[in-house]
Each structure stands twice: as C-alpha cells, then as structure tokens.
Structure to design on (246 residues):
C-alpha cells in the first residue's frame, strides 16, 4: 500500500513519487532521473521516437514528452550545480542526452523507495557516476547563492552579472557553460521550485505562486506548463505530503 503522491525537496535535489498524467512537450532546467515503480512508461522525443522503459536519465534542456501510462513513478531532479549532476554530465555527454534504463529494476518497492528517499544514486544506477566532478566556477556559484535567496522580485540578469563581476554577455556565456541552461531559464526554474516547495496540500496555488515571486497564479500556471508539460493543479493537488530537506 503506497502513501499517495509525495514530494521531498532540498536546495539542490527534489523527489516526486506518485501517479501523474501524461505531459505535453517540455524541457527542464535540471537533469531528471525517471523511474517506473510499478511498470514501464514512455518517452517521446522530437525526432519521432517513442521509447518504453523502466527508467530514463534525461539531461538538462532536452525536449520530451513523459507518459507514465498509469504507472506509479519517481521523478528525481538534481540541480545542475550539484555534485551528483556534475558527475553525471560526462556520462550523458558520452552516451547521449537521454539514457534509457540506467537504473536497477525495483525488486522490493519499499526498499527501493527508501533508496530514492536517500537520493542514493550509487545504489539506484546500474553504473555509478564518477565521483570526480569538476568544481563549479566561483562566479557562477556566487550568482546562484543570490538567485536562490527569497525576495519579492526575481533577480535580474544584470544584477547577477554584477555579483559575478562580469559583463552581462560574458556572464550569460559562462552561466550556460557551467549550468547547461541560460540564466533566464534557470531563474524561472528556481522560481517554480520555490513555488512548489512553498505549496501545502491544504493551501492554494495563489499562495504557491507568491512564494515563487510570480506576478499571480496565472503567470505561475503558464510557466509551470512550459516547464513540466502539465498543469500545476495536476501535479500539486494530489500531494499528500511535502517534506523539506535541511
């Protein structure tokens, strides 16, 4: 008997477990590990391919459709500056932006979900990621610290460039090089994460939107659909539990 849909989120990682509808076309600003806990799911790619699999590792910025096909699934997001994501980067660059069935098959679902809860990639993946991740550029790291601070308005690109002591054009280039995504796209992702983390099962989408510094719930909903290919209500309303990691 499962616990319903749950969300566990921290500064550089998030885990959603539950049942979800099929998405529309979308792309994330962080790599995601998708795992079918009760069966196989489908991934649609822009070249017309449709792959069915038990797991998939999808790199930052890859457009796709995710169809759980009624199965219970786990979605693990690793922020692109995290050690784990940076360790996986060499692998996806070598093997392709989408790697199918990189994870072990679940034998005992409860034991498997405990490994997911611990974000234990070494126990989940068939082949462990190298542990020699290159360090993040200190200038980008400074901009991320400021970007992730709660504020009434999103951090402007020029302000982020100033924090990094770079021109706007040089900052944009460096940020994409280090993170695999543009500053603007990652800023939106950060806002959406803040909104999701601020959501409470007994709360409203408007409250979540305010927590992400969105102008209103409609603005939040539009960007959420662009990011996940689903409406926020279809993802957030089924949540039974939201846990914040320290």
């Amino acid at each position: 008997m499962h616990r319903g849909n749950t969300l566990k989120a921290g500064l550089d990682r998030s885990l959603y477990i539950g049942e979800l509808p099929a998405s529309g076309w979308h792309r994330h600003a962080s790599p995601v590990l998708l795992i079918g806990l009760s069966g196989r799911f489908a991934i649609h790619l822009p070249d017309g391919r449709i792959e069915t699999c038990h797991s998939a590792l999808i790199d930052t910025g890859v457009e796709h459709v995710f169809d759980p096909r009624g199965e219970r699934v786990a979605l693990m997001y690793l922020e692109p500056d995290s050690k784990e994501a940076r360790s996986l980067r060499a692998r996806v660059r070598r093997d392709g932006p989408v790697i199918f069935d990189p994870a072990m098959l679940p034998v005992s679902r409860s034991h498997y979900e405990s490994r997911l809860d611990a974000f234990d990639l070494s126990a989940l993946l068939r082949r462990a990621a190298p542990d020699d991740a290159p360090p993040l550029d200190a200038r980008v790291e400074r901009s991320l610290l400021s970007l992730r601070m709660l504020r009434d308005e999103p951090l402007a690109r020029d302000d982020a460039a100033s924090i990094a002591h770079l021109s706007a054009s040089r900052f944009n280039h460096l940020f994409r090089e280090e993170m695999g995504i543009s500053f603007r796209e990652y800023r939106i992702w950060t806002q959406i994460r803040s909104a999701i983390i601020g959501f409470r099962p007994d709360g409203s989408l408007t409250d979540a939107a305010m927590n992400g510094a969105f102008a209103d719930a409609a603005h939040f909903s539009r960007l959420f659909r662009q990011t996940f290919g689903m409406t926020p209500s279809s993802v957030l309303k089924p949540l039974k539990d939201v846990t914040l990691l320290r």
Q: What stands out?
A: The CA atoms of residues 176 and 182 lie 5 Å apart.
